[in-house]
Amino acid sequence: MVIMCARLPEQPRPAPTTAVANPRWLDASEQRVWRSYLAATQLLTERLDQDLQRESGIPHTYYEVLVRLSEVEDRTLRMSDLADRSLSSRSRLSHAVARLEEAGWVRRESCPTDRRGQLAVLTDAGFAALEAAAPVHVEGVRTHLFDQLTNEQVRQLGEICTAVADHLRADRPAGSADAGASPG
Fold first, then answer.
1. Where are the chain's structural domains?
2. C-alpha span between 103 and 129 (Å, rounded)
3. Predicted TM-score of the model (pTM)
4. Which CATH architecture has domain 53-134?
5. Successive 10-residue mean pLDDT values, the chain, 184 residues
6. Which helix (H) or strand (E) holds 107?
């Protein structure tokens, strides 16, 4: 089968970096680890989302927004800060907040110090929805992640994830959530 694609207009391409010009291919062991990591993270996220939707009617991405708002003083954050904290693009976050507003769980307010800025505020109803959903989420995380690991593996996983996240955060320009990162 041949897949036809529309031809894109010719555009100048940047010169490949040394890493792209001379890729350091994964060996068989690294390839197995990479594929296992992808499967584990995708399947875990999918399962947590299914459990939350079935038991609480809340998608995992919306749950993450509610959690982030619940963790700050006055349950209020600038929309741009909320996007950064939830590793979401501003447009994706705006859509999520609109849906949460429809449910009465979040409201938007004008930022008193910046006319262009908006604040997202977790309502009492939103906090109650979060409290109802939290046991489902924590049980899913415990059952599908932590119960599958030894204490030593949990410690190692924490160190590994921190090392990778620290590296990736150091390379991110400020306000780069618009680069397409999605919430976990």
1. 53-134
2. 10
3. 0.78
4. Orthogonal Bundle (1.10)
5. 45 66 91 97 97 95 96 94 90 94 96 87 97 97 97 98 92 55 38
6. strand 106-111
